[in-house]
Amino acid sequence: MNAGIEALLARLGAKREEMLERAGQCQTATELVVWAERFNVKLTQEEAGELLQFAHGSEDELPDSELGRVSGGTAFGKPPMCPKCRKLSPYGSSTCQHCGEPL
Ligand SMILES: [Zn+2]
């Protein structure tokens, strides 16, 4: 057990059992932070993350930032295709890389 989680559990005091149980049911640190606020417990994202990891008893959970990156990556769809020469240009291009046609 690392020093961070130990200090955090000490700070939670009587609520620790409840918090750990809940942490085991939460999928994200944000979810746990929101839930803790209802019990007048202030958690940072880092603290909630540690608690989550501790409660789940594994280190292979993806952190929020990682999940955001993965789901964000699939939301982009296809790169822009030129209406004139029908070739693909890189993401975010405003004109065709091949013939200069506005996209
Ligand atoms: Zn083109």
Written overview of the protein:
By secondary structure, the chain is mainly alpha-helical. It has a domain at 3-61. The chain has 5 helices and no strands. It has helices at residues 3-12, 16-25, 29-37, 45-56, 64-75. Helix 2 (16-25) crosses helix 4 (45-56). The longest helix has 12 residues, at 45-56. It is rod-shaped and about 70 Å long. The relative contact order is 0.11. Mean pLDDT is 81; it is low at 68-75. The structure holds zinc ion. The site of zinc ion has 8 residues, from loops.
Considering the chains and any ligands shown, give keywords for the structure:
103 residues, mainly alpha, rod-shaped, binds zinc ion
Largest sheet: none
Number of E strands: 0
Amount of helix? 40-55%
Oligomer: single chain
Average pLDDT figure: 81
List bound small molecules: zinc ion
Categorize the overall geometry. Answer: rod-shaped
Count of alpha/pi helices: 5
Poorly predicted runs of 5 or more residues: 68-75
User: What is the SS-derived class?
Assistant: mainly alpha
Query: What integer value in Å does the Rg equal?
Result: 22 Å
